[in-house]
Design brief:
It contains three helices and eight strands. The chain has a four-stranded antiparallel β-sheet with strand order 1-2-6-4. The chain has two domains: 47 residues; 128 residues, Immunoglobulin-like. The termini are far apart. 28% of the residues lie in helices and 27% in strands. With 208 residues, the protein is α+β, with helices and mostly antiparallel strands.
């Protein structure tokens, strides 16, 4: 009987039955056989291992760069004079006693933001005057709040007080976490007029 017998593998080729596990499966019915499944499993394992290696390498890089990146410093709190206001509230009261030559007025001390501010001292520039405050210093004011402070002045020597206080001010010593400052607060023209009237009344009454 004439015919063509089974094909012999040529040079550089091999049969599927003698191939290694890494060779792809042949087309046809063997694509669903045990060797094909083994090939697919090995391929999936290799791809999974490569993916994990890439993820680990990327995570390690991010961790290393994050560890060495400089952390931003927190913003420094403001200076106390930048967030503290002192405003004139009440008219200066006339001297209550001709003997003591004292008069009082009120101011409002407020803090807008930042850490609490402590008022450690309140003074004024005239040598012939002394003052006290209620509440007494030191007292503390939190951000967003205000304290009414009554200032009582005593005329000690009329010759050393101005007849007309042009731009009177209060020196207030302020302290917070950032610094300690002495800041001069000018209380405005109404305070200057009322203070001048009170000083004249105290000295004229006392001299009489």
């Amino acid at each position: 009987m004439s015919g063509i017998g089974p094909l012999e593998p040529g040079e550089g080729t091999h049969e599927w039955g003698t191939s290694g596990p890494d060779d792809p499966p042949p087309a046809g019915g063997l694509a669903h056989g045990p060797l094909a499944r083994l090939y697919r499993r090995r391929r999936r394992a290799v791809l999974t291992a490569l993916t994990l290696a890439l993820l680990l390498a990327g995570g390690g890089y991010l961790f290393a760069t994050r560890q060495h990146a400089p952390r931003p410093r927190p913003a420094a709190p403001p200076y106390p004079s930048q967030v503290t206001d002192v405003s004139y509230l009440d008219d200066v009261a006339a001297p209550r006693d001709a003997e003591t030559r004292t008069f009082s007025f009120a101011v409002l001390v407020s803090v807008r933001s930042g850490p609490p501010v402590t008022v450690t001292g309140i003074t004024q520039p005239y040598e012939g005057l002394s003052l006290t405050s209620a509440p007494r210093t030191p007292f503390r004011i939190r951000a967003g709040s205000a304290h009414k402070v009554v200032i009582t002045m005593h005329v000690r020597e009329c010759g050393k007080v101005p007849a007309d206080a042009g731009l009177p001010f209060l020196d207030v010593t302020l302290r917070n976490k950032r610094a300690i400052e002495v800041h001069s607060f000018i209380l405005g023209s109404r305070y200057a007029q009322n203070l001048s009237q009170a000083l004249r009344a105290a000295c004229v009454t006392g001299s009489g």
